[in-house]
C-alpha cells in the first residue's frame, strides 16, 4: 500500500500577519486624515499592492477628478459651540471656519460674511451664518473631505452632514455665497 503524501496547508508566518495588520492600520490612519490609497502608494511604493486583495477591497477608492470621498466620520457626536477666547479644540469661529479636535478647518467653495464686517448688514449676516454652521455641525456625526490647506495653513475641506454639505446649505439659505476666487463685498 502506497502512502499518499499529506497535503499540509502552508502555515503563514506570524511576522507576515503582523506586517499585514500594521500596513492596514497605517492605511486606516491615512484614510482617516484624508490621504487616499493612491497618494499613500506614491509615498511608500508597493505598500497598497502588498496587502491581501480582501484588505485592498475595503480601502476607499480615489474618486474621479481627484475629489476625495468622505472616508471617516469626525469623531463622536459632539456640540460645536461658538469659539470663545480660550483654547480652541472643537468650536465654530465664523460662517466658514471651525475647529474640530484641534484642527482648524476652512469650508471649501464658499465665502461667508466676516464677523468684523464693514457694515451692520455684513456683521448681522455673519452672526447668523456662524450660528447656523454651529447648528449644522452640532449633535451629529459629519465627514470631512479634506482638500489641502489654504495660504493661512487652515485645512480646506467640505463638511458632509446627514442633511447635506454644510457649505451648500449655507449658500442655499443665503448665509454665504459660492467662492469665486476672491473676496467680494457684502456691503453696498
TrEMBL record:
PROSITE patterns listed in its UniProt record: TNASE_3 (PS50830)
Q: Transmembrane segments in this chain: where?
A: none
InterPro entries per UniProt: SNase_OB-fold_sf, Staphylococal_nuclease_OB-fold
Please provide an example of a Pfam family that matches this protein in its UniProt record.
SNase
| The organism's place on the tree of life at top rank | Bacteria
Annotated TNase-like domain ranges read: 88-188
Protein name per Swiss-Prot or TrEMBL: Nuclease homologue
Species annotation: Aquamicrobium aerolatum DSM 21857
Amino acid at each position: 500500500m502506497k502512502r499518499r503524501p499529506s497535503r499540509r496547508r502552508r502555515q503563514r508566518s506570524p511576522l507576515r500577519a503582523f506586517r499585514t495588520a500594521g500596513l492596514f492600520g497605517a492605511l486606516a490612519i491615512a484614510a482617516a486624515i484624508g490621504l487616499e490609497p493612491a497618494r499613500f502608494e506614491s509615498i511608500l511604493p508597493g505598500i497598497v499592492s502588498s496587502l491581501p486583495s480582501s484588505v485592498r477591497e475595503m480601502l476607499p477608492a480615489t474618486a474621479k477628478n481627484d475629489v476625495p470621498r468622505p472616508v471617516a466620520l469626525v469623531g463622536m457626536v459632539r456640540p460645536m459651540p461658538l469659539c470663545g477666547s480660550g483654547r480652541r479644540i472643537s468650536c465654530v469661529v465664523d460662517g466658514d471656519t471651525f475647529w474640530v479636535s484641534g484642527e482648524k478647518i476652512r469650508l471649501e467653495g464658499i465665502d461667508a460674511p466676516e464677523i468684523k464686517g464693514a457694515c451692520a448688514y455684513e456683521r448681522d449676516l455673519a452672526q447668523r451664518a456662524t450660528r447656523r454652521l454651529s447648528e449644522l455641525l452640532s449633535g451629529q456625526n459629519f465627514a470631512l473631505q479634506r482638500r489641502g490647506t489654504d495660504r493661512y495653513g487652515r485645512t480646506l475641506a467640505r463638511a458632509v452632514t446627514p442633511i447635506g454639505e454644510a457649505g451648500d446649505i449655507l449658500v442655499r439659505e443665503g448665509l454665504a455665497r459660492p467662492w469665486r476666487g476672491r473676496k467680494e463685498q457684502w456691503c453696498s
